[in-house]
Structure formats: C-alpha cells, structure tokens
Design a protein that fits this description.
The chain has one helix and six strands; from the N terminus they run H-E-E-E-E-E-E. It is mostly beta strands. It has one domain (2-9, 19-106). The N and C termini lie far apart (69 Å).
Length: 121
Amino acid sequence: MKKSLLAASLLCTALTAQAEPGVFLGLTLQLGGNFSAREVGLTAKLVSSRHEDRAVVGGGISIYPFGSGPTRIGADIGAGLQGRNAGALVGYDLLLNRPTLSIGHVNTVRPAQAPAPLPPT
C-alpha cells in the first residue's frame, strides 16, 4: 500500500507543473531479467511537453497482460526523447522495482515559430 501511495504522489508531483503535457501510448519492456512475454506490457503516460523534438519526462501506468500475480500492473516514471508523433522513454517502475523501456505514439504539435519581421517601409 505504501508503494502505491508513493508512486501516485510522485506522479502527481512530477506532472502537475506542466503547461501543455502530451499523452504517450505504447509498449513497455521490463529490463534486467529474462526476456519473455511476461515482461512486455501496454503503457499510458503523461509527458511533460507536446512539442516535437524535445527531451521530456513522464510517468504513467503499465499493464502486463501475460504477467503473473502482482506483476500485472506497474507505475513508472522516466525521461526520454520525442520526435514527430513518436517517443521513447527510459524509466523505473516504482511498483515492480525494475527499469523499463517504453516506445510509442505521442500526440505532438510543432512548436510555434516567431513570425518573420516586416520589411522597412
């Protein structure tokens, strides 16, 4: 129970100060163990920015459909890069105590560019 409360409070603290967060949906892989289907999951995260070509931090929930017992749900935080509608994050799962790698789709937008100056008249 304490781990769940700690994970929830860290996620809320990390994500509340952002002005325009993005939504990340994709696959996650638990690292540091034997590779099997039990370590591959589906993830949904909030990332710190929707802008393309940025370094971001994020956190979210992962569901491991082929996991067994308490390893079916995880809550992770991480950092990574995002490009045009795609991103990758390396993080740590606070409930499962394992590093993670996530790749997926991000709802990015192009950053607004400054308008060109008007020619002198």
